Every structure is written in C-alpha cells, then in structure tokens.
C-alpha cells in the first residue's frame, strides 16, 4: 500500500496527487520533445524545397541577364521568396519557445517530486534549473520585427 | 565585395540570412555561435557582423563586448538580430557597443536597407 502522506506535513500535497501532477508534467515535456522533432523534420523539408526554388531562380536570373526572358517577370517570384524567408524563421522562434517551456515544465516536475518524496538516499534530488528570464520570444505573429539603430 | 560575418546557432536562420545577403551581392561567412564567430573574427576582418543574442558557449552581447575590445572591430558595424525585444536587453546591447537591434523575424528588404545604411 502506498503511503499517501508527504514529508512536508499535513498541508502539503498528498503523495499520490504529487505523483500524478509530476506524471502530467513529464508527459507534457515528452510531447514538446516530439513536437520539436516534427517541427524540425517539417522545416528540413521546407528548407530543401526553398533551396531548390532558389537554384531555379538563379537559373532564371541568368536567362534574364541574357535577355531570354524579361527581368520584370521575375519580380513576383523574388517577392514570394522574400516572404518565404520571413516565414521560414518560424522554426527558429518556435524552437526557442518550445525549449523554454520544456525547461520550465521539467523544473516544475523535478521540484514537485523533491517536495513530495524528499531527497534520494544518495543525497539531494536533482532539480533542473528553471530559466532565469521570461521567454525571449514575445512575437505572436509572423510580421517582420522592429529595427532600432543606436 | 563587402564581407559579412553571420552568427546564429539555428541552421535555418543561418541559411535565411546567407540567402538574403548573398542575393544582394555580399560575401558571407557563417558562425554557429559567439565563440565560433570570435575565433573566425580573429583570423580576418569583416565589414559587418550580424549576430543572434541567445546562443550556447557565447551569446551575442558578450560577442559584441569581446569584438569591441579588439582594435580591428572597434568601429565595425555590429547588428544584433534576435527574438529578444525587451528594452532591458536592447540597452544591454547598446551598452556593449552594438550598432543596432533587429527583432526576428526579419524582412529581407528591410534587413538589406539597414545593412546598406550602416556598412562603410
């Protein structure tokens, strides 16, 4: 039978509740890991397609310089590639956001386990450090960010 | 041809920055973090440094400080391109000697405009 008491006394979270909360937090961190992998895979594919489009664009620019096609026909394609450059930065921002959230959840799970179950026989329970600063990614849209020259 | 040192720990960001700069005719050298950038900067000079802030081993602001201590980079334009947009971080970048602060995501045309404005 599991002892439902906690080393923190009568007002502390019962051990079973703490264990369940920790399980949820660990599941969430594992889900974030999978999301990170899926995002990276998807972006690798997008980057390959993007590189292929850039190579084709360079060939077309060569044709334009030889007057085989009109240079202004390439403007819409250049604009589209420029927009893709902005959108493809989504992966970088999303990765930072996921990494930050992962560290915070992991730290909560570790702290919860230590508070509910105490330290190991071998010494202090390992608690992953929570990020010291808030998440650096504050942008909510894919519009270009601000520019400030000092 | 102007040479630019582009620093970011994200491979996709390095590709986006390189594509944008190379399309505009710049020569681009990539570095994977501040430490790698500092080592590359020791062996040659650049006309501009464009760096991320949050990176392993050495962050962007530390890189700016270290480069500013190097005579050849005393007046080289250094732009920080980051997801960080707090005034506190911007002021830290300014105090370190950065030339400007750009928040991700960047628009290729705007980035090139800024670079043309600050590069010599």
Automatic annotation (TrEMBL), chain A:
Organism in which the protein naturally occurs: Caldimonas aquatica
Protein name (record): Chemotaxis protein CheZ
Domain of life: Bacteria
From TrEMBL, chain B:
Keywords: Phosphoprotein
Record-linked SUPFAM superfamilies: CheY-like (SSF52172)
Residues modified to 4-aspartylphosphate: 52
Protein name listed in UniProt: Response regulator
Domain Response regulatory: 3-119
Claim: Iron is one of the keywords in the record: no
Phylogenetic classification of the source organism: Bacteria, Pseudomonadati, Pseudomonadota, Betaproteobacteria, Burkholderiales
A Pfam family this chain is assigned to: Response_reg
PANTHER family with a match to the protein in the record: CHEMOTAXIS TWO-COMPONENT RESPONSE REGULATOR, STRESS RESPONSE REGULATOR PROTEIN 1
